[in-house]
Amino acid sequence: MTESRLILITNPGSSSRKYALYRGNDLLCSLHFEFEGANIICTLKKADDTKKKITTDFASLTDTVANLKDLLTSEGYLDENTKIDVILARTAAPGSYFAYDHLVDEECLKQLEIGKKTAPLHIPVVAGEIEHFVKSFAGTPVVTVSDSGFHNDRPDLAKYYAFDTELADQYEIKRWGYHGLSMGSIAHYMEKAGILPEKVIVCHIGSGSSLTAIQNGKSVDTTMGFTPLEGLMMSTRTGSIDAAAALAIKRARGIENDEDLEKFLNKECGLKGVSANSDDMREVMKSRDNGSQKDAFALDLYNYRIRAAIGQMAAAMDGVDAIVFTATIGERSDETRLEVVKKLGYLGFQIDEAKNLAEMPERHTNIAAEGSKPVYVIRTDEFEEMIRRATVLLDGEK
Protein backbone atom coordinates (compact mmCIF):
# COMPACT_ATOMS: atom_id res chain seq x y z
CA MET A 1 0.00 0.00 0.00
CA THR A 2 1.45 3.36 -1.00
CA GLU A 3 3.26 5.09 1.86
CA SER A 4 1.23 8.28 1.46
CA ARG A 5 -2.21 6.65 1.58
CA LEU A 6 -4.31 7.90 4.51
CA ILE A 7 -6.15 4.95 6.05
CA LEU A 8 -8.95 4.98 8.61
CA ILE A 9 -9.62 1.68 10.40
CA THR A 10 -12.71 0.73 12.40
CA ASN A 11 -13.03 -2.16 14.84
CA PRO A 12 -16.52 -1.84 16.33
CA GLY A 13 -17.60 -3.72 19.45
CA SER A 14 -20.95 -4.07 21.15
CA SER A 15 -19.98 -1.69 23.97
CA SER A 16 -17.25 0.41 22.36
CA ARG A 17 -15.93 1.81 19.10
CA LYS A 18 -12.26 1.72 18.15
CA TYR A 19 -10.64 3.62 15.29
CA ALA A 20 -7.11 4.20 14.06
CA LEU A 21 -5.69 6.60 11.51
CA TYR A 22 -2.61 5.56 9.54
CA ARG A 23 -0.40 7.20 6.94
CA GLY A 24 0.72 4.13 5.00
CA ASN A 25 1.97 1.76 7.71
CA ASP A 26 2.61 4.52 10.25
CA LEU A 27 0.08 5.07 13.03
CA LEU A 28 -0.99 8.69 13.45
CA CYS A 29 -3.51 8.17 16.24
CA SER A 30 -6.08 5.76 17.67
CA LEU A 31 -9.45 6.59 19.22
CA HIS A 32 -11.44 4.50 21.67
CA PHE A 33 -15.04 5.52 22.45
CA GLU A 34 -16.88 4.01 25.41
CA PHE A 35 -19.37 4.96 28.09
CA GLU A 36 -18.11 6.31 31.43
CA GLY A 37 -21.27 6.73 33.45
CA ALA A 38 -23.79 8.59 31.28
CA ASN A 39 -21.15 10.13 28.99
CA ILE A 40 -19.33 8.75 25.98
CA ILE A 41 -15.62 9.38 26.45
CA CYS A 42 -13.06 9.29 23.66
CA THR A 43 -9.53 8.27 24.60
CA LEU A 44 -7.25 9.60 21.87
CA LYS A 45 -3.80 8.01 21.76
CA LYS A 46 -1.14 9.74 19.68
CA ALA A 47 1.76 8.14 17.82
CA ASP A 48 4.09 8.99 20.72
CA ASP A 49 1.82 7.01 23.11
CA THR A 50 0.54 10.13 24.90
CA LYS A 51 -3.17 10.01 25.68
CA LYS A 52 -5.93 12.57 25.83
CA LYS A 53 -9.47 12.09 27.15
CA ILE A 54 -12.27 13.89 25.36
CA THR A 55 -15.81 14.08 26.77
CA THR A 56 -18.36 14.05 23.96
CA ASP A 57 -22.04 14.96 23.88
CA PHE A 58 -22.92 11.89 21.80
CA ALA A 59 -26.21 10.27 22.76
CA SER A 60 -25.10 6.81 21.58
CA LEU A 61 -22.10 5.01 20.13
CA THR A 62 -23.72 5.14 16.69
CA ASP A 63 -23.07 8.92 16.72
CA THR A 64 -19.30 8.40 16.59
CA VAL A 65 -19.01 7.87 12.83
CA ALA A 66 -20.98 11.00 11.93
CA ASN A 67 -18.75 13.08 14.22
CA LEU A 68 -15.43 11.36 13.58
CA LYS A 69 -14.31 13.65 10.76
CA ASP A 70 -14.97 16.77 12.87
CA LEU A 71 -13.11 15.30 15.84
CA LEU A 72 -10.07 14.34 13.74
CA THR A 73 -10.12 17.83 12.21
CA SER A 74 -10.30 19.58 15.58
CA GLU A 75 -7.34 17.49 16.78
CA GLY A 76 -5.27 18.51 13.75
CA TYR A 77 -5.22 15.20 11.87
CA LEU A 78 -7.48 16.34 9.01
CA ASP A 79 -8.13 19.62 7.27
CA GLU A 80 -10.07 20.82 4.24
CA ASN A 81 -7.25 19.72 1.94
CA THR A 82 -6.83 16.26 3.50
CA LYS A 83 -8.77 13.32 2.15
CA ILE A 84 -8.99 9.86 3.69
CA ASP A 85 -8.06 7.44 0.93
CA VAL A 86 -9.61 4.21 2.25
CA ILE A 87 -11.60 2.95 5.24
CA LEU A 88 -11.05 -0.59 6.54
CA ALA A 89 -13.70 -2.37 8.65
CA ARG A 90 -12.90 -5.54 10.62
CA THR A 91 -15.74 -7.95 9.84
CA ALA A 92 -16.48 -11.04 11.93
CA ALA A 93 -19.42 -12.92 10.44
CA PRO A 94 -20.32 -16.49 9.43
CA GLY A 95 -20.60 -17.52 5.81
CA SER A 96 -18.38 -17.92 2.76
CA TYR A 97 -18.92 -14.33 1.60
CA PHE A 98 -17.46 -12.84 4.76
CA ALA A 99 -14.59 -15.32 4.80
CA TYR A 100 -13.00 -12.99 2.22
CA ASP A 101 -12.22 -9.28 1.99
CA HIS A 102 -14.49 -7.06 -0.11
CA LEU A 103 -14.68 -3.55 -1.45
CA VAL A 104 -18.06 -2.32 -0.22
CA ASP A 105 -20.57 -2.06 -3.07
CA GLU A 106 -24.26 -2.82 -3.52
CA GLU A 107 -23.64 -6.58 -3.31
CA CYS A 108 -21.65 -6.20 -0.10
CA LEU A 109 -24.36 -4.05 1.49
CA LYS A 110 -26.92 -6.68 0.45
CA GLN A 111 -24.84 -9.44 2.08
CA LEU A 112 -24.51 -7.38 5.27
CA GLU A 113 -28.29 -7.05 5.35
CA ILE A 114 -28.67 -10.82 4.99
CA GLY A 115 -26.00 -11.31 7.66
CA LYS A 116 -28.00 -9.30 10.20
CA LYS A 117 -30.46 -12.19 10.33
CA THR A 118 -27.82 -14.94 10.27
CA ALA A 119 -25.72 -13.44 13.05
CA PRO A 120 -27.92 -10.92 14.91
CA LEU A 121 -25.37 -10.36 17.69
CA HIS A 122 -22.35 -9.77 15.48
CA ILE A 123 -23.32 -8.34 12.09
CA PRO A 124 -25.68 -5.42 12.94
CA VAL A 125 -22.95 -3.40 14.70
CA VAL A 126 -20.38 -3.64 11.92
CA ALA A 127 -23.06 -3.30 9.23
CA GLY A 128 -24.33 -0.12 10.87
CA GLU A 129 -20.78 1.20 11.10
CA ILE A 130 -20.12 0.53 7.43
CA GLU A 131 -23.42 2.08 6.36
CA HIS A 132 -22.61 5.22 8.35
CA PHE A 133 -19.13 5.42 6.83
CA VAL A 134 -20.55 5.16 3.31
CA LYS A 135 -22.76 8.19 4.09
CA SER A 136 -20.35 10.26 6.22
CA PHE A 137 -17.32 9.71 3.97
CA ALA A 138 -19.05 9.72 0.60
CA GLY A 139 -16.73 8.73 -2.22
CA THR A 140 -14.15 7.10 0.05
CA PRO A 141 -13.67 3.38 -0.65
CA VAL A 142 -14.65 1.12 2.26
CA VAL A 143 -13.21 -2.39 2.59
CA THR A 144 -14.55 -5.19 4.78
CA VAL A 145 -11.55 -7.13 6.10
CA SER A 146 -12.50 -10.67 7.09
CA ASP A 147 -11.68 -11.85 10.60
CA SER A 148 -12.08 -15.43 9.33
CA GLY A 149 -9.90 -15.25 6.21
CA PHE A 150 -6.74 -16.62 7.84
CA HIS A 151 -8.62 -19.87 8.57
CA ASN A 152 -9.88 -20.45 5.01
CA ASP A 153 -7.24 -23.03 4.08
CA ARG A 154 -7.94 -25.40 6.98
CA PRO A 155 -8.76 -28.99 6.03
CA ASP A 156 -12.45 -29.88 5.82
CA LEU A 157 -12.10 -32.03 8.96
CA ALA A 158 -11.62 -28.80 10.92
CA LYS A 159 -14.52 -26.99 9.23
CA TYR A 160 -17.51 -29.33 9.40
CA TYR A 161 -19.82 -30.19 12.26
CA ALA A 162 -21.06 -33.77 12.51
CA PHE A 163 -24.28 -33.46 10.54
CA ASP A 164 -25.24 -33.76 6.86
CA THR A 165 -22.45 -32.02 4.93
CA GLU A 166 -24.81 -31.16 2.05
CA LEU A 167 -27.04 -29.33 4.53
CA ALA A 168 -23.95 -27.61 5.96
CA ASP A 169 -22.92 -26.47 2.49
CA GLN A 170 -26.41 -25.31 1.54
CA TYR A 171 -26.90 -23.16 4.65
CA GLU A 172 -23.20 -22.44 5.26
CA ILE A 173 -23.30 -23.77 8.81
CA LYS A 174 -19.63 -24.49 9.34
CA ARG A 175 -16.79 -23.71 11.73
CA TRP A 176 -15.61 -20.46 10.14
CA GLY A 177 -13.23 -19.45 12.94
CA TYR A 178 -12.37 -15.91 14.09
CA HIS A 179 -9.48 -13.86 15.46
CA GLY A 180 -7.93 -14.51 12.06
CA LEU A 181 -6.49 -10.98 11.88
CA SER A 182 -4.72 -11.48 15.19
CA MET A 183 -3.49 -14.94 14.19
CA GLY A 184 -2.28 -13.64 10.83
CA SER A 185 -0.52 -10.77 12.57
CA ILE A 186 1.34 -13.18 14.86
CA ALA A 187 2.25 -15.65 12.09
CA HIS A 188 3.58 -12.93 9.77
CA TYR A 189 5.50 -11.25 12.60
CA MET A 190 7.10 -14.55 13.67
CA GLU A 191 8.09 -15.29 10.09
CA LYS A 192 9.73 -11.85 9.69
CA ALA A 193 11.45 -12.18 13.08
CA GLY A 194 12.80 -15.62 12.18
CA ILE A 195 11.08 -17.38 15.09
CA LEU A 196 8.25 -19.22 13.30
CA PRO A 197 8.60 -22.98 13.87
CA GLU A 198 6.78 -25.66 11.92
CA LYS A 199 4.06 -26.14 14.55
CA VAL A 200 2.89 -23.33 16.84
CA ILE A 201 -0.22 -22.83 18.99
CA VAL A 202 -1.29 -19.20 19.30
CA CYS A 203 -3.39 -18.37 22.37
CA HIS A 204 -5.35 -15.16 21.77
CA ILE A 205 -6.61 -14.56 25.30
CA GLY A 206 -8.66 -11.41 25.80
CA SER A 207 -12.29 -10.48 26.30
CA GLY A 208 -12.92 -12.91 23.47
CA SER A 209 -10.50 -15.83 23.40
CA SER A 210 -9.45 -18.51 20.94
CA LEU A 211 -6.57 -20.85 20.13
CA THR A 212 -5.26 -21.63 16.67
CA ALA A 213 -2.95 -24.41 15.53
CA ILE A 214 -0.61 -22.94 12.90
CA GLN A 215 1.51 -25.32 10.83
CA ASN A 216 3.99 -23.99 8.26
CA GLY A 217 2.44 -20.55 8.68
CA LYS A 218 -1.14 -21.67 7.94
CA SER A 219 -4.16 -22.31 10.15
CA VAL A 220 -4.82 -26.01 10.70
CA ASP A 221 -7.56 -25.77 13.32
CA THR A 222 -9.05 -23.16 15.65
CA THR A 223 -11.38 -23.22 18.64
CA MET A 224 -14.04 -20.74 17.49
CA GLY A 225 -16.71 -22.09 15.16
CA PHE A 226 -19.84 -20.86 13.38
CA THR A 227 -19.72 -17.77 15.61
CA PRO A 228 -17.19 -16.54 18.19
CA LEU A 229 -19.24 -18.30 20.91
CA GLU A 230 -17.67 -21.73 20.40
CA GLY A 231 -14.46 -22.83 22.10
CA LEU A 232 -12.84 -21.40 25.21
CA MET A 233 -14.53 -19.97 28.28
CA MET A 234 -14.30 -16.19 27.76
CA SER A 235 -15.06 -12.98 29.66
CA THR A 236 -18.81 -13.19 29.04
CA ARG A 237 -19.18 -16.13 26.61
CA THR A 238 -19.77 -19.65 27.81
CA GLY A 239 -17.62 -21.19 25.09
CA SER A 240 -18.49 -24.69 23.83
CA ILE A 241 -21.72 -26.00 25.33
CA ASP A 242 -24.00 -28.96 24.63
CA ALA A 243 -26.95 -27.69 22.57
CA ALA A 244 -29.31 -29.62 24.84
CA ALA A 245 -27.75 -27.89 27.88
CA ALA A 246 -28.38 -24.53 26.20
CA LEU A 247 -32.03 -25.46 25.68
CA ALA A 248 -32.24 -26.60 29.32
CA ILE A 249 -30.96 -23.14 30.36
CA LYS A 250 -33.62 -21.56 28.15
CA ARG A 251 -36.37 -23.52 29.89
CA ALA A 252 -34.96 -23.09 33.40
CA ARG A 253 -34.61 -19.31 33.09
CA GLY A 254 -37.83 -18.83 31.18
CA ILE A 255 -36.02 -17.31 28.20
CA GLU A 256 -38.65 -16.69 25.58
CA ASN A 257 -36.80 -16.77 22.25
CA ASP A 258 -33.64 -18.04 20.60
CA GLU A 259 -32.12 -14.57 20.19
CA ASP A 260 -32.35 -13.93 23.94
CA LEU A 261 -30.79 -17.33 24.63
CA GLU A 262 -27.91 -16.53 22.26
CA LYS A 263 -27.52 -13.17 23.98
CA PHE A 264 -27.39 -14.85 27.40
CA LEU A 265 -24.72 -17.33 26.30
CA ASN A 266 -22.65 -14.52 24.78
CA LYS A 267 -23.15 -11.77 27.39
CA GLU A 268 -23.89 -13.34 30.79
CA CYS A 269 -21.68 -16.42 30.99
CA GLY A 270 -17.95 -17.13 31.02
CA LEU A 271 -16.03 -15.39 33.80
CA LYS A 272 -19.01 -13.15 34.47
CA GLY A 273 -21.37 -16.09 34.93
CA VAL A 274 -19.13 -18.42 36.94
CA SER A 275 -17.47 -15.81 39.18
CA ALA A 276 -19.08 -13.50 41.70
CA ASN A 277 -20.35 -11.49 38.72
CA SER A 278 -17.33 -9.79 37.13
CA ASP A 279 -16.05 -10.20 33.59
CA ASP A 280 -12.80 -8.37 34.44
CA MET A 281 -9.93 -10.82 35.04
CA ARG A 282 -8.24 -8.36 37.42
CA GLU A 283 -11.34 -8.04 39.58
CA VAL A 284 -11.88 -11.80 39.65
CA MET A 285 -8.27 -12.34 40.78
CA LYS A 286 -8.60 -9.67 43.46
CA SER A 287 -11.83 -11.23 44.76
CA ARG A 288 -10.17 -14.67 44.75
CA ASP A 289 -7.26 -13.27 46.75
CA ASN A 290 -9.77 -11.91 49.27
CA GLY A 291 -11.12 -15.41 49.85
CA SER A 292 -13.89 -15.87 47.28
CA GLN A 293 -14.18 -19.57 46.45
CA LYS A 294 -16.54 -18.76 43.61
CA ASP A 295 -13.90 -16.62 41.92
CA ALA A 296 -11.18 -19.18 42.62
CA PHE A 297 -13.24 -21.82 40.81
CA ALA A 298 -13.92 -19.44 37.90
CA LEU A 299 -10.20 -18.92 37.38
CA ASP A 300 -9.43 -22.64 37.66
CA LEU A 301 -12.11 -23.42 35.08
CA TYR A 302 -10.87 -20.65 32.79
CA ASN A 303 -7.28 -21.95 32.82
CA TYR A 304 -8.37 -25.60 32.54
CA ARG A 305 -10.30 -24.85 29.35
CA ILE A 306 -7.23 -23.21 27.80
CA ARG A 307 -4.99 -26.16 28.71
CA ALA A 308 -7.49 -28.65 27.32
CA ALA A 309 -7.71 -26.72 24.06
CA ILE A 310 -3.91 -26.63 23.77
CA GLY A 311 -3.99 -30.44 23.88
CA GLN A 312 -6.63 -30.42 21.15
CA MET A 313 -4.59 -28.07 18.92
CA ALA A 314 -1.42 -30.13 19.47
CA ALA A 315 -3.32 -33.24 18.38
CA ALA A 316 -4.43 -31.45 15.19
CA MET A 317 -0.76 -30.97 14.20
CA ASP A 318 0.74 -34.19 15.59
CA GLY A 319 2.72 -32.14 18.09
CA VAL A 320 3.75 -28.56 18.88
CA ASP A 321 7.07 -26.71 18.75
CA ALA A 322 6.13 -23.40 20.41
CA ILE A 323 3.28 -21.66 22.24
CA VAL A 324 2.40 -17.98 21.88
CA PHE A 325 0.34 -15.85 24.28
CA THR A 326 -1.19 -12.69 22.84
CA ALA A 327 -4.09 -10.19 23.27
CA THR A 328 -4.94 -8.30 26.47
CA ILE A 329 -4.88 -11.12 29.02
CA GLY A 330 -2.32 -13.22 27.16
CA GLU A 331 0.10 -10.29 26.99
CA ARG A 332 -0.52 -8.85 30.47
CA SER A 333 -1.48 -11.65 32.86
CA ASP A 334 1.63 -13.43 34.15
CA GLU A 335 -0.63 -15.57 36.39
CA THR A 336 -2.72 -16.87 33.48
CA ARG A 337 0.39 -17.79 31.49
CA LEU A 338 1.96 -19.54 34.49
CA GLU A 339 -1.18 -21.49 35.43
CA VAL A 340 -1.73 -22.65 31.87
CA VAL A 341 1.85 -23.70 31.11
CA LYS A 342 2.78 -25.30 34.42
CA LYS A 343 0.73 -28.39 33.50
CA LEU A 344 2.07 -28.64 29.95
CA GLY A 345 5.31 -30.40 30.84
CA TYR A 346 4.11 -33.46 28.91
CA LEU A 347 4.33 -31.34 25.74
CA GLY A 348 7.80 -30.05 26.63
CA PHE A 349 6.93 -26.60 28.00
CA GLN A 350 8.02 -24.88 31.20
CA ILE A 351 8.01 -21.19 32.12
CA ASP A 352 10.89 -19.27 33.68
CA GLU A 353 8.99 -17.48 36.47
CA ALA A 354 11.43 -14.55 36.63
CA LYS A 355 11.13 -13.92 32.86
CA ASN A 356 7.36 -14.29 33.10
CA LEU A 357 7.18 -11.54 35.78
CA ALA A 358 9.67 -9.18 34.12
CA GLU A 359 8.83 -6.16 31.96
CA MET A 360 8.48 -7.07 28.27
CA PRO A 361 9.31 -3.91 26.27
CA GLU A 362 10.00 -5.75 23.02
CA ARG A 363 7.25 -6.95 20.70
CA HIS A 364 8.19 -10.56 21.47
CA THR A 365 9.74 -12.20 24.52
CA ASN A 366 10.57 -15.86 25.13
CA ILE A 367 9.61 -16.65 28.74
CA ALA A 368 10.46 -20.37 28.56
CA ALA A 369 12.74 -21.98 31.13
CA GLU A 370 16.08 -23.41 30.05
CA GLY A 371 15.55 -26.71 28.26
CA SER A 372 11.91 -25.93 27.44
CA LYS A 373 10.39 -25.43 24.03
CA PRO A 374 9.79 -21.69 23.36
CA VAL A 375 6.90 -19.93 25.12
CA TYR A 376 6.49 -16.52 23.52
CA VAL A 377 4.58 -13.43 24.59
CA ILE A 378 3.97 -11.45 21.40
CA ARG A 379 2.04 -8.23 20.99
CA THR A 380 -0.60 -8.68 18.31
CA ASP A 381 -1.36 -5.92 15.79
CA GLU A 382 -4.65 -6.54 14.04
CA PHE A 383 -4.62 -3.10 12.39
CA GLU A 384 -1.22 -3.81 10.80
CA GLU A 385 -2.62 -7.09 9.46
CA MET A 386 -5.72 -5.30 8.11
CA ILE A 387 -3.49 -2.89 6.17
CA ARG A 388 -1.45 -5.79 4.79
CA ARG A 389 -4.62 -7.61 3.68
CA ALA A 390 -6.15 -4.47 2.16
CA THR A 391 -2.92 -3.89 0.23
CA VAL A 392 -3.37 -7.31 -1.40
CA LEU A 393 -6.98 -6.50 -2.30
CA LEU A 394 -6.43 -2.94 -3.56
CA ASP A 395 -2.95 -3.08 -5.04
CA GLY A 396 -2.36 -6.77 -5.68
CA GLU A 397 0.78 -6.68 -3.51
CA LYS A 398 1.80 -9.64 -1.32
Summarize this entry quickly.
The protein has 398 residues and is an alpha/beta fold. The protein has helices at 63-74, 106-118, 123-136, 165-171, 180-193, 243-253, 258-267, 270-274, 281-289, 293-317, 327-332, 334-341, 353-357, 382-395, and strands spanning 6-12, 16-23, 26-36, 39-46, 51-55, 86-91, 102-103, 142-146, 199-205, 209-215, 218-222, 322-326, 364-366, 375-378. It has two domains: 6-146, Nucleotidyltransferase, domain 5 (2-Layer Sandwich); 197-382, 2-Layer Sandwich (Nucleotidyltransferase, domain 5), CATH 3.30.420.
Description:
The chain is an alpha/beta fold. It folds into two domains: 141 residues, Nucleotidyltransferase, domain 5 (2-Layer Sandwich); 186 residues, Nucleotidyltransferase, domain 5, CATH 3.30.420.40. Helices cover 38% and strands 21% of the residues. The protein is built from 14 helices and 14 strands. The strands form two sheets. An eight-stranded mixed sheet has the order 5-4-3-2-1-6-8-7, with helices on both faces. A six-stranded mixed sheet has the order 11-10-9-12-14-13, sandwiched between helices. β10 and β11 form a beta hairpin. α10 packs across α12. The longest helix has 25 residues. The chain is globular. The termini are close together.
Write the layout of secondary structure elements.
Elements: E1 6-12, E2 16-23, E3 26-36, E4 39-46, E5 51-55, H1 63-74, E6 86-91, E7 102-103, H2 106-118, H3 123-136, E8 142-146, H4 165-171, H5 180-193, E9 199-205, E10 209-215, E11 218-222, H6 243-253, H7 258-267, H8 270-274, H9 281-289, H10 293-317, E12 322-326, H11 327-332, H12 334-341, H13 353-357, E13 364-366, E14 375-378, H14 382-395
Parallel strand pairs: 1-6, 6-8, 9-12, 12-14
Antiparallel strand pairs: 1-2, 2-3, 3-4, 4-5, 7-8, 9-10, 10-11, 13-14
Helix pairs in contact: 2-3, 5-14, 9-10, 10-12
